[in-house]
Amino acid sequence: MAILAVAGIDDVVLNFSPLGLQILNGILAVVMFSIAIDLTTADFRRLLTAPKPLITGLFSQFLLLPALTFGMILLVEPRPSIALGLMLVAACPGGNVSNFMTHRAKGNVALSVSMTAFATVGAILLTPFNIAFWGSLYGPTRDILRATSIDPVSVAITVGLMLVLPLCLGVALNAKRPDITARIRVPMQYLSMGIFVAFIVIALAANWELFLQFAAVVAGLVLLHNALALAGGYGLATLTDLSEFDRRAVTIETGIQNSGLGLILIFGFFSGLGGMAVVAAFWGIWHLLSGITIATFFARREVSV
Question: Residue 43's closest CA among 151, 115, 128, 129?
Fold first, then answer.
């Protein structure tokens, strides 16, 4: 039974309507806007005067994690659609809940928020580049990329509309009308996360039998992948001699990926390919659990700023 499940996952296409994809696009834009209204231009200027933690974090996200992912795939040799799903998740910028978890971990929240912002802008170029570059280095995933004829420019436009546009609008609103952002900040955060989680649950419900059938196949790989992300982020931050305060932000930002964006790319450009979609969906569930766990662990250990 398990062998059949693994063999069939490359051929399975999850059910996700065009309307559903448009709704998910809108939800992700609302989530990004809810993060952006916490940002000011001063956050960016402050980090530009002391850029080492920011550069370390971005290097960890966009270079180290994809490289670790590729090494893991070479060792484990998962099914092609699963491998490409892992590569795609690693190519996405940090997830929106990383800022909340960094705060819970008593880490540098300003660094976390700014990393999310810079990574979001950088994702316009780096996300399609990482998918194409690492995917083309591995034969089985290269075949999928050739079959789908993915257009990096289209991916960049999608990332820009879903993430960068609401980011700019949120920062602009916070600069022009801080009184409004102060009133809507907390309700927006709860509302955006609530509707995002609810929508993912509804989307999974439409494919529940397939998700249950294949979740066990990807579970171990996702857990290992996420552990590599967290360990890689902390290890790099330690090697570059960042403070413990900054290490916590880099660790969580590397281990929390924007799996919502991953799902949009999978359904928009890969026709909901089963292995990729199950990986991204399982990542979206697991990284919340692992993030809360490591944040709680960090929170029990005092750190000097």
Answer: 115
